[in-house]
Amino acid sequence: MNGIMEVLTTKIPLGEGVAWLVDTLTTRFSAQFRFVSDMLEGGIQALTWCLSALHPLVFIALCTALAWFIRKSKGVALACALGFLLLLNLGLWESMVQTLALIIAATLLSLTLGIPMGILNAHSRTAYFVTRPLLDLMQTIPAFVYLIPALMFFGLGEVPGVFATVVFAMPPVIRLTCLGIQQVPTERLEAGRAFGANWWQMLLKIEIPSAMPSILMGVNQTIMMALSMVVIAALIGAEGLGASVMRALAVVDVGMGFESGLGIVVLAMLLDRIVRPEKTPDGSS
Amino acid sequence: MNQGTDATAEKLCCRDVWKIFGKLPGGALGQLRNAPQRQHEIQTLPGCTVAVREADFSVREGELFVIMGLSGSGKSTLMRCLNGLIRPTWGEVFVDGRSLQAISAKQLRRLRQEKMAMVFQHFALLPHRTILDNVALGLELQGVSKKRRRAKALEALELVGLQGWERNHPVELSGGMQQRVGLARALAVDPQILLMDEPFSALDPLIRRQMQDEFLKLAAKVKKTIVFITHDLDEAIRLADRIAMMKDGRIVQMGTPEQIVLEPENDYVEEFVASVSRAKVITARHVMADPRPWTSRREEDPLAVLDRMKKEDLQCVFITDTDRRLLGVLTREEAARKIRGGSAPAGCNGVPAIGPDAPLSEVVEQAASSIHPTPVLDGRGRILGVVTRKRLLQEWKQDLEG
Ligand SMILES: Nc1ncnc2c1ncn2[C@@H]1O[C@H](COP(=O)(O)OP(=O)(O)OP(=O)(O)O)[C@@H](O)[C@H]1O
Ligand SMILES: [Mg+2]
Predict the structure, then answer these.
(1) Using a CB-CB distance cutoff of 8 angstroms, which residues of chain B are in contact with residue A193?
(2) Residues that place a CB less than 5 A from ion ligand 2
């Protein structure tokens, strides 16, 4: 009995294995990581610079116009203007811009990786079965856990923040793209095939347009997930609203904590209202 | 339409095509083929549906081939086999003599682009596209320039009576209008072969009739090969050159509309056609009687002719030459007069006659306008038969009863 227990409780070196893997990756591919890191860093800085170069009022006007253009709703446009004015008033402007840059970078990266992955998953059963557990893992492991390898790969700063955010925020867009494409009605696919569409034509003219509501929902989810990663990314040195929350926590300042938290909420609501799949004309949103 | 001489080419051809949905246990198909009496067993295999069994037919160029049958009898599945949307479990489909099973994916795509278009039972429009872009889909996939495909799509839309809707989206159209968009989409590519899965089912009777007329005109003009599915026997009779009746995946009878209606080969077909008015398919050929008692050679002795007329109670006979070509009609009075005058009865007056394929309505019209029975002539003026009023009335009675 004791013998069995001993065998059973002899620990499988799982953690050691992962640590070894990450170690090896960092040492073997340090040049590559450095390269990616530099690229990302440059991108984020450029983005931040662009966003902060705009006068806040110009920025607000542009965002309001954009909201109006996308949603065609006075309510959303007005909420957009008021929300940003509130952030400006609370003195959170600079943090907000940094956070926004981070979110935009992470979202763009998630989408450029996630949408093709979703398409691949929809078409290949193998890819689907390999990816599904990975996606579960990415979404459910506490975010703090993969901050550690992110730190080891990229050091402190914005880049590991973006990396961690992408890992956390990519699954929904993969899942929803895949779902959307799998759910395209057979008859529509048949229509394409019956008129002689090739693979790319099927994808671009039939599958993606049909799956668009679902893909947009994925984009929306990704943005929201990215935003929820912001505070955590602050732990490893990403600037922005999250960092303000952290500072408030460090000095136990309830007021400041509330204001920064509110800033995140306002930003989240605005982004959600602006980027959201609308009811499409076919009513099959 | 054209009854297709043997010279016209086979455009579409199915050779022993089977389609079974679901996962077949290994070897089941082979067993099935070797032991036809076990065929019912496969129906009971869990998760298996035999949608098409032993489909074996060909469609000639320019022919309008109608597939009929109850819901679930495998019509749509069979049609999808014809353009390769569904790969048959067994058997081969030939288009222009080329087997769909043997050509590459690329060749199949080209074949679909260039030769065949399909109208779907449930329309299958793309909701994110405007009506115009929906109609232009086939041309777009072929790589036709935007300007040209728009022009062609507009033309096709006009043909189905939907001009002015091109900027709308499918959801804004009624079912019948969407169906016509599906029709326009197929017509826009101007294919040699049209596969139409209940293309008029959602239309109201008025527009349906209009579309059928339009369609018949079109089919006659451009000589398209058409496979057409319908539930509506009247529609089938109106349009079809040939009809295939399906039951549980099998083609149970195939033939011209007259054959289907007048000579149903089994109870299923009989039941199916019971409701249809025979008058719709009946032609002069079906109601004409043997012409022999009614005809007389020009050389025949008038006394003998008059004698025969009296004996058989005929009011008149048709005079023919030695080649049985109709020359004229001779009534009893005329015969008697001629005998008194001493001359042989010769053909005189022009006799109203009809062709063997004249529909019943025409026969009735003709019969009503003449006191004599109506002779039926072939293309060279030879007498094939005679339609009497008695026979017409009998036919009518049968139709009323049946
Ligand atoms: N993709 C499929 N998977 C499994 N079974 C199918 C599939 N498509 C059709 N079937 C089955 O095949 C049979 C024939 O279907 P099909 O659609 O060809 O009928 P149909 O004659 O077109 O009927 P309707 O007049 O209602 O359109 C049905 O029993 C159906 O359940
Ligand atoms: Mg059908």
Answers:
(1) 85, 112
(2) B 76, 121
CB spacing of B125 vs A191 below 8 angstroms:
yes
Let me know: does A175 contact A218? Beta carbons within 8 Å.
yes
Q: Which range among A87-96, A135-144, B127-136, B234-243 shows the weakest confidence by mean pLDDT?
A: A135-144
pLDDT of residue B1: 41
Residues B290 and B267 placed together within one structural domain of the fold: no
pLDDT of B5 reads 41
Q: CB-based contact (8 Å) between B199 and chain A? A: no
Show the domain range for B329: 285-401
Q: Where are the alpha helices (DSSP H) in B74-174?
A: 75-82, 105-114, 131-135, 137-142, 146-159
Q: Which of A184, A186, A195, A205 to mutate to test the interface with B (most CBs of B within 10 A)?
A: A195
Verify whether the Cβ–Cβ distance A201 to B141 is below 8 Å.
yes
pLDDT of residue B8: 57
Same domain membership, residue B268 and residue B380: no
Tell if the CB–CB gap between B141 and A196 is shorter than 8 Å.
yes
Q: Which residue has the higher pLDDT, B234 or B8?
A: B234
Give a yes or no: residue B143 inside a domain.
Answer: no
- Measured in degrees and rounded to the nearest 5, phi and psi for residue B34 equal -80, -25
Residue of B43, B49, B179, B251 to mutate, ligand 1, most atoms within 8 A of C-beta? B49
Domains of chain A: 17-53+90-274 (1.10.3720.10)
**pTM, rounded to two decimals:** 0.80
Q: What's the mean pLDDT in B240-260?
A: 92
ipTM of the complex: 0.79
What residues contact residue B140 under an 8 Å CB cut-off, 6+ apart? A205, B133, B149
Question: How far is it, in rounded angstroms, from Cα B304 to Cα B370?
Answer: 26
B276, B310, B333 — which closes off a domain? Answer: B276
Q: Do A198 and B109 touch (CB under 8 A)?
A: yes
Q: How far is A184 from chain B (nearest CA, A)?
A: 10
Of the candidates A190, A201, A282, the beta carbon closest to that of B124 is on: A190
Instruction: Confirm whether B383 is domain-assigned.
Output: yes
> Distances from the Cα of B186 to the Cαs of A204, A263, B124, B142, B243, in angstroms?
21, 55, 12, 13, 22
Q: Which residues contact B145 (CB under 8 A, 6 or more apart)?
A: none
Looking at the complex, does the CB of residue A192 fall below 8 Å from at least one CB of chain B?
A: yes
pLDDT band at B186 (very low <50, low <70, confident <90, very high): very high
Rounded mean pLDDT of A268-274?
89
CA distances from B386 to A238, B50, B327, B369, B373 (A): 102, 49, 14, 15, 6
Nearest residue, CB atoms, A187 vs list B112, B124, B140:
B124
Of A228-232, B51-55, B159-163, B205-209, the range with the lowest mean pLDDT is A228-232
Band of the pLDDT at B26, cuts 50, 70, 90? low
Model pLDDT, residue A202? 95
Mean pLDDT, residues B191-211 taken together: 90
Q: Is B167 exposed, middle or buried (0-12, 13-18, 19+ CB in 10 A)?
A: exposed
Residue B395: what pLDDT? 82
Q: Residues B31, B37, B38, B44: what is their CA dihedral angle, to the nearest 10 degrees?
A: 140
User: CB–CB of A161/A237 below 8 Å?
Assistant: yes
CA-nearest of B44, B73, B15, B13 to B251 is: B73
B274 band by pLDDT with thresholds 50, 70 and 90: confident
Is-contact B138 B113, C-beta < 8 A?
Answer: yes
- Return the percentage of chain A with pLDDT > 70, whole number: 97
